[in-house]
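Researcher: Structure prediction, please.
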Amino acid sequence: GHRDGQQVPPFTQRRALHLVEWVLKHYPGADPERVYTTGGSMGGTGAATVGLLNARHFAAVESTIGQMVPRNHRPSRIAQLSGHWGAPGENLDDGRGMRAWDRMDLTRAIADDVEARNQFVFTRHGKDDPTIHFGAVTHASLLTMQSWYTAIQLYKTGHVAVWDEGGHGPADPTLGS
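Model: Predicted structure follows.
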């Protein structure tokens, strides 16, 4: 979404959900029980965000090298997101009864929402990734005081979590593809 006055409506998530609804309505072979969200890097962040914040619409989430806690981004990415959501300290209203930076914290989603908690999630991260650092899943959220890995284990979210020695996209040098 983008800043709209002092609210930060989730325009991109709405567009994604409308597209899913359109496909299910117009393609008779589309199975509503087999809708998945997947992506890598920024797309992995988006897949996890839309898939967990709207879990009832998806059968599973695959997030490869995605950031699960926006406040844990590198400073340059926080500056970019601040142009859309306001600065983390502002934590603007998202127009749906929550603060934008809090809403996007996926450790909070797992803790607060039974549908998100009951989602199946696949994640992969590389320890040598300079873009989405390994802290994306191992550093605690300032909101929940839990890392992504801690949250999915604590709340018994079905998951496969892969981490390797790879970077941002390249296969692990030892394991290969």
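Model: The beta strands are 36-40, 60-64, 121-126, 159-164.
Researcher: Thanks, that helps.
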